[in-house]
Backbone:
């Protein structure tokens, strides 16, 4: 088992993930590298298909065939997760790293009562606790979630979408893990419930001093929750910055376009902005910059050469506009 002394809670280095299909190889993640400090909140944003969820499932090592992690390393608390046996990795999930999924209805067992989900999870990781202690732990977390104790014996289908997502949050936080990954946790919820769920995640992660990765396609969601933001496009990180820096002065043309497409509720909306074109086919990526065909700043070099992710003080950007010496 590979390990090392590390000041970062999570360090992902040159991570590559591919899906082998009949039509060819889908390059879902390409040389993804970032670090996350304990006690911080990181937002990961981008359009659908950019690799956000693939990154989340890679961290908890749940990429299933035909998908494969082809290279790279994922160090968590000094241990390379990619070198762990499946048995040891199973003990890490839920206890040290947990995931709040997009769709709670397909994540909860429909024939198990909600309380049984909590009891089973506690029993799997802390078998020394008796039934009474497990139930007390489960009821305590339900109380924090605002779920009445009498609903302990209800089935998932008896809960609304928002309440089911509260249950998933409770399962993710139940064992007080060091890292919580929220993978678009409000996708199927209306705007009011979405705000309540995001407020609950923010409140509980602060109370429990957890580290959070919030994955979303809505860049506006990360503004109040996250310390830093990673912007992904076509399986790559194209920009990383402090949240205030990113919103004040986006560097990458894609980030600029994402922010411009968010309606301002204060100003009168005369027209809606959008990003022309579509993301590239990950089966057949363009030779140069992946954003070239949609970028209003593109020039000849962008078409023929792929830009590197460069450091600019406390932020990173993948764009020739900021290349030194240009």
Residues:
């Amino acid at each position: 088992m590979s390990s090392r002394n590390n000041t970062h809670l999570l360090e992902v280095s040159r991570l590559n993930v591919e899906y082998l299909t009949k039509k060819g190889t889908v390059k879902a993640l390409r040389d993804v590298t970032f670090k996350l400090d304990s006690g911080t909140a990181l937002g990961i944003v981008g359009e659908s298909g950019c690799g956000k969820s693939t990154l989340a499932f890679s961290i908890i090592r749940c990429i299933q065939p035909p998908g494969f992690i082809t290279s790279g390393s994922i160090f968590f608390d000094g241990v390379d997760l990619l070198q762990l046996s499946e048995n040891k990795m199973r003990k890490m999930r839920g206890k040290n790293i947990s995931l709040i999924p997009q769709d709670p209805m397909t994540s909860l067992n429909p024939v198990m009562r909600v309380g049984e989900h909590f009891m089973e999870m506690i029993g799997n990781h802390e078998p020394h606790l008796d039934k009474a202690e497990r139930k007390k732990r489960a009821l305590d977390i339900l109380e924090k979630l605002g779920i009445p104790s009498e609903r302990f014996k209800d089935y998932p289908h008896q809960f609304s979408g928002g309440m089911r997502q509260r249950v998933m949050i409770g399962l993710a936080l139940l064992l007080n893990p060091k890292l919580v990954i929220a993978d678009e946790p409000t996708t199927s919820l209306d705007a009011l419930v979405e705000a309540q769920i995001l407020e609950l995640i923010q409140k509980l992660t602060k109370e429990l001093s957890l580290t959070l990765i919030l994955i979303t396609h809505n860049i506006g969601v990360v503004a109040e929750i996250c310390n830093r933001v990673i912007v992904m496009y076509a399986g790559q990180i194209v920009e990383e910055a402090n949240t205030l820096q990113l919103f004040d002065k986006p560097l990458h043309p894609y980030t600029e376009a994402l922010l411009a497409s968010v309606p301002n509720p204060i100003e009168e909306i005369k027209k809606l902005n959008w990003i022309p074109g579509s993301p590239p086919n990950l089966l057949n990526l363009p030779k140069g910059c992946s954003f070239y065909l949609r970028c209003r700043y593109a020039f000849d070099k962008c078409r023929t050469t792929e830009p590197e992710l460069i450091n600019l003080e406390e932020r990173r950007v993948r764009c020739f506009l900021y290349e030194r010496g240009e």
